[in-house]
TrEMBL record:
Residues 13-124 form the Acyl-CoA dehydrogenase/oxidase N-terminal domain. The keyword Phosphoprotein does not apply. Pfam families: Acyl-CoA_dh_1 (PF00441), Acyl-CoA_dh_M (PF02770), Acyl-CoA_dh_N (PF02771). Belongs to the acyl-CoA dehydrogenase family. PROSITE patterns: ACYL_COA_DH_1 (PS00072), ACYL_COA_DH_2 (PS00073). This is Acyl-CoA dehydrogenase family protein. It comes from Streptomyces bluensis.
Amino acid sequence: MAGSADFDLYRPSEEHDMLRDAIRALAEAKIAPYAAAVDEEARFPQEALDALVANDLHAVHVPEEYGGAGADALATVIVIEEVARVCVSSSLIPAVNKLGSLPVILSGSEELKKKYLGPLAKGDAMFSYCLSEPDAGSDAAGMKTKAVRDGDHYVLNGVKRWITNAGVSDCYTVMAVTDPTKRSKGISAFVVEKSDEGVSFGAPEKKLGIKGSPTREVYLDNVRIPADRMIGEEGTGFATAMRTLDHTRITIAAQALGVAQGALDYAKGYVRERKQFGKPVADFQGVQFMLADMAMKIEAARQLTYAAAAKSERVAAGGGEGGLTFQGAAAKCFASDVAMEVTTDAVQLLGGYGYTRDYPVERMMRDAKITQIYEGTNQVQRIVMARNLP
């Protein structure tokens, strides 16, 4: 038997710990100082993008053969978690770059991978993911966007809604119906470029949180693209979209984990400094129990998320799909529910100050809410889990 010092079964590797230290230092120095202004002004966090690109942390998941860092799924989770700890809007840069490009990695031709993953890895382009529509949210298979074959091109028409980083990203993975008679098996995936004729964007949505991440409609008006921009075979787009979400829901769990940790860290510091009735608020047992519950739930969410990331990595390496769908949904659902609870409790611990914009916890609470909704509502996650019980 190995000695206890070598027992690494439930511990991230030294490389993962070093990555966390590096990304946390970067996030504290280059992203945190702008988080309040990004939220207040509802503007894209350009400082965060610049800092992430300068340190090759904007799309760490891209394989080395296409110029990327080739980071594993847990490393990607740690990057997203540490950025979300200071600014959830900024954490959508690495998260959505993975979401948008993973269909190309999973199902794209070698030509597509070379063409689109290189610029992403360099930081010359960002990727977004276009699945939802005005009438097709949770029921994504009910989409109406069409792609009609015309010689060696496809012509796309439709509207995509709730598209993260729309207008900023250069590349869009778009799901569209190629055979209306087959429902989900008649949906195909394509890469659409922002510069393609007929692509335009709606006004930015006015949102409760993640205000620094633009969410807009994407309009496709007779967008004519070469047939070789199809990702995988015709009719396989929906299957690719669902496989993608199995992996990327874990990145939403990472965001939730990060914002929960950020809120706990802030609240913990605050109650130690704040005095009432002649002693620090942290000395009151009721407050201690709140902090203990917050920390316990975060730790449970972290273990579930990291285990799901490890499973995602094994599956990506060809280790069979068993259990990833359940585990990805469970991590996302549990961690986002924890994030909402913990950030709400953090506001409570700061009292009246928690309710003001002078302190970051009210922003964290607003930002946490979306993690229960996007990439599949937590109600949908429960349906997914029930269908895939281990």
